[in-house]
Amino acid sequence: MGSENLFKPVLSSWLEQDGPQSDVVISSRVRLARNFKDWNFSGAGVELFARVREELGTRDGFSFLAMGDLSVLERGMLVERHLISPEMMRRQDFGAVMVSDDERASVMFNEEDHIRIQCMAPGLQLEQVLNEAFVLDDELEINMPYAFDKRLGYLTTCVTNVGTGLRASVMVHLPGLVATKKLQKTVEAIRRYGFVVRGMYGEGSRPASNIFQISNQVTLGKTELEIVQDLSDVMEQVIMQERVCRTKLKQTFHIAMEDRIFRAYGVLKHSRILAQKEAADAISDLRLGIQMGYVEHIPSQKVNELILFSQPAFLRRFAQRDMNELEEKVIRAAAIREILDTY
After folding, report:
1. Could you give the dihedral angle defined by the CA atoms of residues 5, 27, 57 and 145, in that order, rounded to the nearest 10 degrees?
2. Which superkingdom is the protein from (predicted)?
């Protein structure tokens, strides 16, 4: 398959599937931060880039992409696909990424650490993606041993990652908690358990479409499996609370909810100009309507397309040109109408 679909308006194959608890949890991800033994943690860019390209550039089942060979638009599309971080997008000189053919796995080189391995899957599947990341982690270490301390664990550029080097996260859709004004109380409870809530693109990003990332803060003093199990336990509580809120909304405000959801569908189906926030709010309501049974003729996977293909980089690829603010709104509306054309 190679990398030909990475820069096309085509949904990643794993996002076309529903996973466990997918009414609330969109995806699960783990990321392992690693540095190589006997290499400077910073300033090793040129030599490290050459080494990994030689060792891993032709790995079966993966595409090797150097940031310097990609346009700003292509790097932006990789961010919007969650295959690289916004920080990686800026590493033009010596940054690179390996992406698996199914886009479930990617490995960033020369981001904050020498490598960052990540694996993703639909729904709540943290233990599954952790095991997949371990397999890739072991394979990469064979030829290039990691920097590891018996007492501290894996050594990383930032001390907040020392130990396991693990960031486990889930991307969740929480419109019920937002609408009933219970989100802040839930966020505070999550923080007390050592987890943090961020926007859909991680640290520094703002929530959109009522989508949030929940991830661990502690990487030292627990095993990887303990971290993943703790996050899974927290998520079971969040999922239960979100479902309770949705049920109350449907029971108490049935007509108002139905009206809100079909108004959102109308906006997406018929608008000629759509700002990013307006589209995000309407997409969130449509996804809620599908999960609550108000909208039965649209598959939930279509919402993933709407979220991805309404982002700025994908719109420019869709239009095959750069555009000003008004043109972006026009193209966003056109792209969304095309996705919903048969619905």
Report:
1. 180
2. Bacteria
8 Å CB contact between 84 and 99: no
Residue 303 CA to residue 283 CA, distance in Å, equals: 7
> Residue ranges per domain, the chain?
24-38+113-241, 42-112, 253-339
**How far apart are alpha carbons 279 and 281 in whole angstroms?**
6
Average pLDDT score, the chain = 90
Tell me the per-residue pLDDT of 98-152, one tens digit each, with 9 for 90 and over.
999 999 999 999 898 999 999 999 999 999 999 999 999 999 898 889 999 999 9
Please say whether the beta carbons of 200 and 207 come within 8 A.
yes
Q: How far is Cα 153 from Cα 221, in angstroms, rounded to an integer?
A: 10
Domain 24-38+113-241 matching CATH 3.90.380.10: the answer reads: no
Task: Give the length of the chain.
Answer: 343
3 state SS of 73? helix
**C-alpha separations of 288 from 138, 262, 293, 319, 320 in Å:** 40, 11, 9, 29, 32
**Binding site membership: which residues?**
27-31, 82, 116, 167-171, 198-203
